[in-house]
Amino acid sequence: MTTNNEYDDLEEIELSESDKPSFENNSNNEENQTGNSILREFLSYMKIIVIAISIAFICNQFIIVNAKVPTGSMKDTIMEGNRLIGFRLSYLFSDPKRLDVVIFKFPDNESENYVKRIIGLPGDNVVIKEGHVYVNDVLLDEPYIKEPMSVSSQVLNYAVPAGCYFMMGDNRNNSADSRFWVNTYVAKDKILAKAIFKYYDSHIVFELIK
């Protein structure tokens, strides 16, 4: 019996193993691609983290000081609990100025950092008498003082050495400063930064320090 089926004349073709579709290989390729994609994404995040940490380290070591003030020795300019942003490069090309608020290494214990106001410059003669401060025989104008300094019968006289600074806190009656330290003066190279901004941990509102 003959048929007219168009498929009768087709030859049977055997496929070799290499020609057969491999679903297992496709699955492995997809898994490899997914794994590579995850690895690339992970490495990308790690790169961002490393760059961010490096920038933060460089800024903290060479550009800014971020410090918390634990006491009220600078009231009302800086309140207890305020945080400060200090600029390390302020005195790279100029000298500290009188009345600047600065962050520096405490001369009696350099592992601690203090914040005070510069009162006496190198070569100045600072005299404290009758609750007032005189620099080179001129009464110092101090609008930042909110509470008068306690009057004492004692007259304190300080001759500021070359390359050094005389520091006082704005809260004169509750400030451990150059008047009381064993090492009275702060050398210029121990001044870390000029305090620029203050803010609270609870709300990041920056205020200029004057």
UniProtKB/TrEMBL annotation:
This protein's UniProt keywords: Hydrolase, Membrane, Protease, Transmembrane, Transmembrane helix
Under catalytic activity, the entry for this protein gives:
Cleavage of hydrophobic, N-terminal signal or leader sequences from secreted and periplasmic proteins
Q: Where do transmembrane segments lie in this chain?
A: 42-65
What residues sit in the active site? Answer: S73, K116
Q: What is its EC number?
A: 3.4.21.89
- Quote the PANTHER family the UniProt record gives: CHLOROPLAST PROCESSING PEPTIDASE, SIGNAL PEPTIDASE I
Give the protein's recorded name: Signal peptidase I
Topological category with respect to the lipid bilayer: Single-pass type II membrane protein
Q: Which organism is it from?
A: [Clostridium] fimetarium
